[in-house]
Design brief:
Elements lengths: L1 H4 L1 H17 L2 H16 L2 H50 L13 H13 L1 H22 L1 H57 L15
């Protein structure tokens, strides 16, 4: 039900992605028009008109890109608002893992992960993948050498990204382990503090404790 309610917004975000990717052709089309019309006719009016049109299209592309990012972030928040009661309720109904010496399932962290994914640039990059393949095919139609250069350049970027990911994987793993250990320490501290606080709330109770009900 939560996903069905977000289908319309997701379709709008995909339509904005299509418009953004088409507007990325503004710069090459502008240069083609300059070489084809302005340099031949030496018309300054044509150059000014083309430049103003290019600026307007770039502004429109920026606005649409911002809007699609906001839409996907709102979809994530809508999913969280519809699922948080169900997920947290299921986590509370399960027997606590702390009784077996484990760690309770971090349901709130799972929901935060979902929200971060919908608000991340990764989702927008997934929307752009089909258009990248379409542009690559168009380059091969123009000239095979252009398509080959695009493939080589894209492969170099992917290789650089993979090398960067491998370089920071060890540090990321250490940071994740430290975060898990910190969460476990906080949960252990909470299990110690709660009974201690109940014991402290006696006839000579500590500040902040409610006195026991003797009636």
């Amino acid at each position: 039900a939560a996903r069905r309610a977000s289908h319309a917004a997701l379709a709008v975000a995909f339509a904005f992605s299509a418009a953004v990717n088409l507007l990325m052709l503004t710069a090459p089309l502008y240069m083609l028009q300059v070489y084809d019309r302005v340099l031949v006719s030496r018309s300054e009016e044509t150059l000014v008109a083309l430049s103003l049109l290019m600026v307007f299209l770039f502004l429109l592309m920026g606005v649409l890109d911002h809007l699609r990012a906001r839409i996907t972030a709102r979809i994530g928040l809508r999913l969280i608002s519809r699922l948080e009661d169900r997920v947290l309720g299921a986590a509370l109904l399960d027997p606590p893992a702390t009784l077996q010496g484990g760690t309770p399932p971090p349901a709130d962290q799972d929901l935060d992960t979902i929200a971060r994914f919908w608000a991340s640039p990764l989702l927008l990059a997934i929307f752009d993948v089909p258009w990248s393949l379409l542009f690559l095919a168009a380059l091969f139609l123009f000239h095979p050498m252009l398509g080959l250069m695009a493939v080589v350049g894209g492969s170099a970027l992917i290789a650089a990204s993979l090398l960067n990911s491998l370089a920071v994987r060890r540090l990321s793993g250490q940071a994740g382990e430290a975060a898990v250990q910190a969460a476990r320490l906080m949960q252990a501290f909470a299990r110690i503090v709660r009974p201690s606080r109940r014991l402290a709330c006696g006839p000579r109770h500590l500040p902040g404790c409610r006195p026991p009900d003797t009636g």
